[in-house]
Design goal:
It is a single chain. This protein is an alpha/beta fold and about 375 residues long. It is built from 10 helices and 21 strands. The chain has a 5-stranded parallel beta sheet with strand order 6-3-2-10-18, with helices on one face. Strands 1-9-8-7 form a 4-stranded mixed beta sheet, with no helix packed on it. A hairpin with a 3-residue loop joins β19 and β20.
């Protein structure tokens, strides 16, 4: 293993593991106050809630898939997964060792993703071609990804037959019944078939045979399918590290009100990997990044721990886009659907706002 020495010698050494929504923003906030290293298996950050639009409009990904180096002018980017953490170092799969004074874990969920931005853009182009060339499409999973993908296809390709199969009693189980009902009614109005309380045997359709069987005995004809089920947390690897006892029974890192890993003075966790009881969403992960980085800056400057910022979960707000104009929005005191809540999210999917938060031009396409 190769020990990597600090290049800048400037400030405390901060290592951020994970370059998703939370990790990218934390890195951006810390880059000029520390000797920063961002460790991520891929060379880019993706505005993940824009990914389903990119499947029907590949050019949309030009703004939503961003090389880490575009917003990190003063940090080191290491394109390799982290595989171990000790009390003083982080080890990557490439055998590099990075010492840290402060550590931020923002690994989110496990997903198999291309390593380079160009490969990711090519993947969206291939998915678009798959959708375009299919007359019928099966979507497995009725959570936010499945519902938003079905909506994008139904709006952009109204002639295609879209079927959602969901192994649950209703769509969008993470929100309330009202929001789920409104999404279901919208799907019905767009002639999207929704099959609930059933699983799909994806192995039942072989090459040339495009008929899928469900656990309820139904058969579905589809030219292609997309799997939109939940991804596991990216925390299994932590069981072999010094943080193994800081995981709860669900594989989440237990944090205190300052977003520090409980029992650790210099290790923070942000985003979906935490055990904070709240809806796991992108804008919440960004709030985590803001609180944790404020606290790290305070500690690095020798500030009093008692002055650290606390994180308090806010009310559950969810906006599920339904194509380019409509959405379903759940607020604490009401649930609405249609083009009015659609104005909040559906046109740009917060891409401009998310780019701006990282110091990038909201509209410029990455070269």
């Amino acid at each position: 293993m190769e020990k990597t020495e600090s290049e800048s010698g400037k400030g405390k050494r901060v290592v951020v593991i994970g370059g998703g929504i939370a990790g990218s923003l934390a890195s951006k906030f810390l880059q000029f106050d520390s000797d920063l290293t961002l460790i991520d298996p891929k060379e880019y950050f993706e505005i993940i809630w824009a990914s389903l639009r990119s499947m029907v409009e590949p050019s949309f990904a030009e703004r939503s898939v961003i090389n880490h180096k575009k917003y990190l002018q003063n940090g080191r980017v290491v394109t390799s997964p982290a595989v171990n953490i000790t009390d003083t170092d982080v080890v990557t799969a490439d055998g590099l060792v990075f010492g840290y004074d402060y550590l931020v874990i923002a690994t989110g969920h496990n997903d198999v993703l291309p390593k380079t931005r160009q490969e990711k853009l090519s993947q969206y182009q291939a998915e678009y071609e798959k959708i375009k060339s299919s007359e019928s499409i099966l979507i497995v999973g009725g959570g936010p990804s499945g519902v938003e993908l079905a909506a994008e296809i139904a709006v952009d390709f109204p002639e295609k037959k879209v079927t959602i199969v969901h192994n649950g009693p209703r769509l969008l189980e993470f929100v309330g019944q009202k929001a789920a009902d409104k999404a279901f009614d919208w799907m019905k109005s767009k002639r999207v078939e929704v099959i609930l309380n059933q699983r799909v045997d994806l192995n039942s359709a072989s090459d040339g045979n495009k008929t899928y069987r469900t656990s309820g005995g139904e058969t579905i004809h589809a030219d292609c399918h997309f799997l939109c089920t939940g991804k596991p947390l990216s925390s299994e690897w932590l069981k072999g590290t010094v943080l193994k006892d800081n995981l709860d029974g669900k594989g989440r890192l237990m944090v205190d009100e300052y977003l520090r890993v409980k029992g650790r003075k210099n290790v923070f966790a942000i985003g979906d990997i935490t055990d904070v009881l709240e809806m796991k969403q992108g804008y919440i992960a960004e709030k985590h990044a803001s609180v944790a980085t404020k606290n790290i800056k305070l500690l690095m400057s020798g500030g009093n721990e008692k002055k650290m910022s606390t994180y308090k979960p806010g009310p559950d707000i969810a906006i599920i886009s339904l194509g380019r104009k409509d959405s379903v929005a759940q607020f604490p005191f009401m649930t609405v659907s249609g083009c009015i809540p659609g104005l909040i999210k559906s046109k740009d999917l917060f891409v401009g706002k998310t780019r701006k938060a990282r110091g990038l031009d909201p509209n410029i396409v990455e070269p």
